[in-house]
Amino acid sequence: MKSPRVLLLTIVGLTCLAVLVDWPNVPIRFSAGPIKVNTVLAGPKIDWNVFGFEFKRDLDVKLGLDLKGGTSLTLKADVSDIAQSDRDKALEAAKEVIDRRINLFGVTEPIIQTSKVGGDYRIIVELPGVTNLENARQLVGQTAKLEFREFINPADATSTIPTIKNTKPTGISGKDLKTAAVDYQQGDTENKGGPVVRFELKSESANKFSAVTRSLIGKPLIVFLDDIPVSAPIVKTEIGKEGVITGLTSEEAKRLSIQLSAGALPVKKIDIISERTLGPTLGKTSIDRSLVAGIIGFTVIALFMAIYYGLVGILADIALVLYALFVLALFKIIPVTLTLAGIAGFILSIGMAVDANILIFERMKEELRAGRNRIQAIEIGFTRAWSSIRDSNVSSLITSGILFWFGTGSVRGFAIALAIGILVSMLTAITVTRNLLRVVYRG
Predict the structure, then answer these.
(1) What's the chain's average pLDDT?
(2) Widest CA span of the chain, in angstroms?
(3) DSSP class of 220
(4) Is residue 65 assigned to a domain?
(5) Do strands 222-225 and 146-151 pair parallel, antiparallel, or not at all (unpaired)?
(6) What pLDDT was estimated at residue 43?
(7) What is the pLDDT, as a whole number, of residue 86?
(8) Rounded to 5, what percent of the chain is helix, strand, coil?
(9) Are residues 289 and 390 in the same domain?
(10) Is the pLDDT of residue 150 over 70?
């Protein structure tokens, strides 16, 4: 058994690290004559590169949709033309495409999950900080099936609006694209200075595109997106590996480049079956109320422990403070996206941490009544309470695992927060409280 003082120093070291990780961004504004200070005392950032392995964290608290505000969409995938055995794979592939689109768009900490309800295949998308519902709809709701087509009857090129019926495929589609990016047209063109999507084809598709454009010189090459014509430029010369799509606004060009870079959804179509937007004001109100509830609950528990158990209760309160520091540090490092349900799981785990201490202290009382001295009561009390604490926490961890595996959205957030809280509470109840008692009573 290690010396209590060595363990105490280890606990102090871990506490200092937790405080460093938990340190919030504190604005400092000071003015005295010519001296002016306007800065932010920020917490640390992790940027490690060990043997080529990079690990980066900004150590900010990641807030979920219900706390930060944003948009939530529930999508229904049409998988009717996909074999039953391949539908789950297609849904996962669609989720990955949507994930790539959102990451390219710059949304931080999105939550994207698949769900099967009866015969419906669904994707749940939560975008914290995104309050433009129309942008969110078009970003994730389009299948982004890009196709280059030509008129069946060349005479229609001068007077007919292109449709799927009066055009035919050229054999070039979004699958042939290597990259796509927004650019602004230069040179002597009708669209000079306007946004375009500049694309590059894969090497194996370049010859095919050259042959198509060679045969269409002087004729339109029509670009269809999800069976809707978006551009019909006249081919002036043979085009090899690169080309542009014109006729778009800046927002449309950005969205199309993202969709093409991420790829088309591998399903027939996607329907939005529910949508909601939560403003940041409601999120701030939720945070404020949660903080008040947490502080009140923490204070009441700490007072109860101190009044009912005296010195050992105060030591348990110290362990409880360390518990809160350790859990918040883990939330930041992992990182865990914090939601209202996650806060509820965290507060619940505080009660479970106290419950472990109460079991231990009651066991200690029994040993003292049996005539044991204080040191013996501490050791025997912890030993005999351990099996009850272990079984209780393992049962709760199993429940958390089931909730995480079968749940979605906020249910998963609750399960993660509860599981982390349970694991840390076992450390603080068994190791921290026990070591503090040894140091105090053994000296």
Answers:
(1) 84
(2) 106
(3) B
(4) no
(5) antiparallel
(6) 67
(7) 87
(8) 55, 25, 20
(9) yes
(10) yes
Per-residue pLDDT, 265: 77
The CATH number covering residue 377 comes to 1.20.1640.10
Instruction: Please tell me whether residues 100 and 130 are part of one structural domain.
Output: yes
**Host domain of residue 45:** 26-60
Assess whether pLDDT exceeds 60 at residue 1: no
- Based on the fold, state whether residues 173 and 313 are members of the same structural domain: no
Q: How far is Cα 235 from Cα 217, in angstroms, rounded to an integer? A: 5
Alpha helix positions (H), 44-113: 65-68, 87-105
Half-sphere exposure of 326 (CA within 13 A, CB side): 25
**Domain count within the chain:** 4
Residue 326 within any structural domain of the chain: yes
Please state, in angstroms and as integers, the Cα–Cα distance from residue 333 to each residue in 274, 330, 349, 426, following that order.
Answer: 33, 5, 19, 20
Residue-wise pLDDT tens digits, 279-322? 766 667 877 888 888 888 889 999 999 999 999 999 999 999 99
Cβ neighbours of residue 349 closer than 8 Å, sequence gap 6 or more: 327, 417, 418, 420, 421, 422, 424, 425
User: Could you report the per-residue pLDDT of 220-257, keeping only the tens digit for each?
Assistant: 999 888 888 888 888 888 888 888 887 778 887 888 78
Q: Which two tokens stand for residue 137?
A: 């709809």
**Positive/negative CA dihedral, 76, 79, 80, 81:** positive
Q: Which of 430, 427, 402 is nearest to 414 (CA)?
A: 402
Contacts of 293 (CB under 8 A, 6+ apart): 347
Q: For the segment 128-144, what is each residue's pLDDT rounded down to a tens digit?
A: 877 777 878 877 877 77
Does one domain contain both 274 and 359? no
CA distance 293 to 286: 11
68-81 per-residue burial string, b: 16 or more CB within 10 A, e: under 16: bbbbbbbbbbebee
CA atoms within 13 A on the CB side of 329: 18
Q: With 70 as the cut, is the pLDDT of residue 348 above it?
A: yes
Per-residue pLDDT band at 188 (split at 50, 70, 90): very low
Name the pTM for this structure.
Answer: 0.69
Domain CATH for 105: 3.30.70.3400
- Identity (one letter) of the amino acid at 147? E
The CATH number of the domain where 167 resides is what? 3.30.1360.200
